[in-house]
From TrEMBL:
Protein name per the record: PqqD family peptide modification chaperone
Keyword line: Iron, Iron-sulfur, Metal-binding, S-adenosyl-L-methionine
Alphabetical list of InterPro entries matching this protein: 4Fe4S-binding_SPASM_dom (IPR023885), Aldolase_TIM (IPR013785), PQQD (IPR008792), Radical_SAM_PqqE_MftC-like (IPR050377), rSAM (IPR007197), rSAM_sf (IPR058240)
Ranges for domain Radical SAM core: 97-322
Needed co-factor(s): [4Fe-4S] cluster
Coiled coil: none
Originating species: Segatella copri
Domain of life: Bacteria
One function term, GO molecular function aspect: metal ion binding
NCBIfam families named in the record: rSAM_more_4Fe4S
Pfam families reported in the protein's UniProt record: PqqD, Radical_SAM, SPASM
Keyword check for Glycosyltransferase: no
CDD domains: Radical_SAM
Length: 444
């Protein structure tokens, strides 16, 4: 028998050894005691063989026979199935499913800044394609039925959408965690007060330098840094969880140290990386001109490592124990995805185009103008092909690579750099992995 939590169910701890199961569609709730809590600690939204779970339970309870544990566990799971809290089936193939946990929606292309590195061409920001409120609500409804946990609203500049508050209200009515990506220049006291009514996860903004001349030369808007910082400080005082993104390229190279210090003082998460994306129309002029060279990337990484306890950044987040995982359980490791794109998250543009992730606009998996989000997530042939490719076993050269623990394969970069060949690893990915390994080993 194979078992998993229902795609619509979430399990929350309410006390030391007690919890509650909630079906996000029916709103039904099931309170579980200490024994139920113990059983559910071994069940999640991934498909598992019930016998493997029973074996794990038996290892924790030595004074009870395996048969009794099995009977009690299966009786409990069967009861939860009747409440639509878990799914059970003898045939694994009937249950192969990917819960959509995270959804990123670009609600508008319109933006009041003209950032020189942005993947959206300025003509599209001026045109301002917007997702209608009715389409937005339909998407959110389907997202919840697919197991959605949190939603990210971005643009363009999301605050430019006339229905932004209505969209927040609707997400809140569905008990979703709401993340917002904004330049904050349109944020005001009234909106900040309103945001306190919602279940806000993270509010992220971009700062390219703490020097107005440099930051404003990148946004091409006078006083943009002052407006962003002013709003950020107000949000900080109101207790919101904040994040600063700082893409680094030649125009702001050398500006990160003061930003790291600022983020540390405010205890704000700081995300720094040196990756530039081509524009969605295929234009790579800025990417070609302004991407850091290898020496600059090494200098940036060394600088960041000196402050590694003060922020998070893409390079350091790549360091892992993948080689140990491969040795401990090769069968499990080889079936795992190399990238989360299309596995538990996807992105929808303001025109309704659906992509595996926010950055991967070169790989469309559907269109909500033609099919529902549920149909796309469950039946898209492009997505099925991607999931079949997106397994570690398909990247055999990586398995024996000495930089394995320092690498994070990005399928979008693979496709972009290799004429559409997703299975061929991006050279930039390899170079950065070895560079990170080299710098880390020298600084330890």
């Amino acid at each position: 028998m194979f078992i998993k939590l229902s795609d619509n169910a979430i399990f929350r701890k309410t006390a030391e050894h007690e919890g509650i199961l909630i079906n996000m569609v029916t709103r039904e709730k099931v309170t579980v005691n200490e024994t139920g809590f113990f059983f559910l600690s071994y069940v999640d939204d991934t498909l598992q063989d019930s016998e493997e779970i029973v074996t794990k339970l038996s290892q924790q309870i030595s004074d009870v026979s395996t048969d009794i544990i099995r009977n009690d566990f299966m009786e409990f799971m069967t009861a939860l199935k009747m409440e639509n809290m878990v799914e059970m089936d003898e045939n694994k193939d009937n249950m192969t499913y990917y819960p959509l946990k995270h959804l990123h929606i670009e609600i508008t292309m319109e933006c009041n800044e003209r950032c020189i590195h942005c993947y959206l061409p300025n003509k599209l920001k001026s045109k301002g394609d917007q997702l209608s409120f009715s389409d937005f609500c339909k998407i959110v409804d389907e997202f919840v039925t697919l197991g959605g946990d949190d939603i990210t609203l971005s643009g363009g500049e999301p605050l430019k959408h006339p229905d932004f508050i209505k969209m927040l209200d609707y997400c809140n009515s569905k008990n979703l965690v709401i993340n917002i990506l904004s330049n904050l220049t349109l944020m005001n006291d009234e909106l900040i007060a309103k945001l306190r009514d919602y279940n806000i996860g993270t509010i992220q903004t971009s700062i390219y330098s703490l020097k107005p001349a440099i930051h404003d030369s990148i946004t091409l808007k006078k006083d943009s840094l002052t407006k962003t910082i002013t709003a950020l400080e107000k949000l900080y005082k109101n207790g919101f969880t904040l994040q600063i993104a700082c893409p680094v390229f030649t125009e702001n190279f050398g500006e990160t140290e003061s930003l790291i210090k600022y983020a540390k003082e405010k205890d704000i998460l700081l995300k720094i990386n040196g990756m530039l994306l081509p524009q969605i129309d295929g234009n790579t002029d800025f990417k070609t001109k302004s991407t850091l060279n290898q020496n600059q990337k090494q200098m940036l990484l060394r600088s960041l490592l000196e402050n590694k306890n003060q922020y998070t950044n893409e390079q350091l987040s790549r360091c892992s124990t993948k080689s140990n995982d491969l040795c401990k359980n090769p069968a499990l490791y080889l079936e795992q995805p190399v990238c989360s794109a299309g596995i538990d998250n996807c992105s929808i543009s303001s025109t309704g185009q659906v992509y595996p992730c926010t950055e991967w606009t070169g790989f469309k998996i559907g269109d909500i103008n033609l099919n529902s989000l549920k149909e796309i997530w469950e039946r898209s042939e492009q997505l099925k092909q991607l999931r079949a490719i997106n397994k570690r076993k398909n990247y055999k050269k990586c398995l024996s690579c000495e930089a394995l623990d320092y690498c994070k394969v990005c399928l979008m970069l693979n496709q972009a750099e290799n004429c559409g060949e997703i299975l061929q690893i991006s050279k930039n990915t390899c170079n950065e992995a070895f560079m990170t390994k080299d710098v880390l080993e020298k600084t330890r």
